[in-house]
Here is the input.
Amino acid sequence: MKNLLGAMIVLMFALVVRGQQVQIIFVPTWAKKALITDTVYLMQNDEIMVEELKFYISNIALQHKGKVVWQETNSYHLLDVNKPGSLQFTLTKPTDIKFDEVLFSLGIDSITSEAGVLDGDLDPTKGMYWTWQSGYIHVKLEGKSKHCPARKNRFQFHLGGFRGETNSFQNVSLKTGNSNRIVIELPVDNFLEGIELSKQYEIMIPGKQAVALSKRLASLFKLKTQ
Here is the structure.
C-alpha cells in the first residue's frame, strides 16, 4: 500500500513539473507562403532577394482576460530564417492555467542590453550584438533589390537601439484562444513594400529610422490561418 501511495505521489509530482506544453512557431512569409532565402521574388516592378533574416523574440507571456497568468523565465530566443529549427520552441506551463492571448517583445530590453556579455542566444558570437555601442541588434534583414543603388544592389537593415528616443524595442500582443499550438506569421513582403529601396536601403545604427521600421515590423505579426 505504501509503495502504491509513493508511486502515485511521484507520478503526480512528475505531471506538475512537466506541465502542459505550448508550441510557438514563427513563419516568415512572402505572398503568404514560407519565405525562402536566396530566391528572387517579384514585387511591383522590382526583384527582391532576401539573404538573411534574424530577429529576437523575448519576454514571452500568456494572458487571460487581460491579466498575465504565466511568464517564461530567461525568455530570449534568436530566430533565424536560415535555421528552421530556431523558428519554433516549446513553452511549459502549469496544466491548470488557461490563456487567450500571447504577449512577446521584438528585440532585447534595455536591462538585458546593459547587463553586458551573456551566453546562449544572447552570445555576441551570434552576430547580433554591437560591441561598439554595447547593445543588441533586434532585427537583421539583408538582401538584394534591383533598384537598390548600393554595391551589388544590397540592402541592409540592422535595427537596434535601447536608449531614449532611439529605443526600437517593441511589444506585441496577439489573441490566440487556449491553443497548445500557436503559429505566428511575419509577412516580410508587406514590410518591404513600405520601403522605397532606391532611397532607403541601409540602416546600421540606432536612430529614428530604426525605431520607425521596428514599429512597422512589430505591427505585422499575426496569427497564421491554418
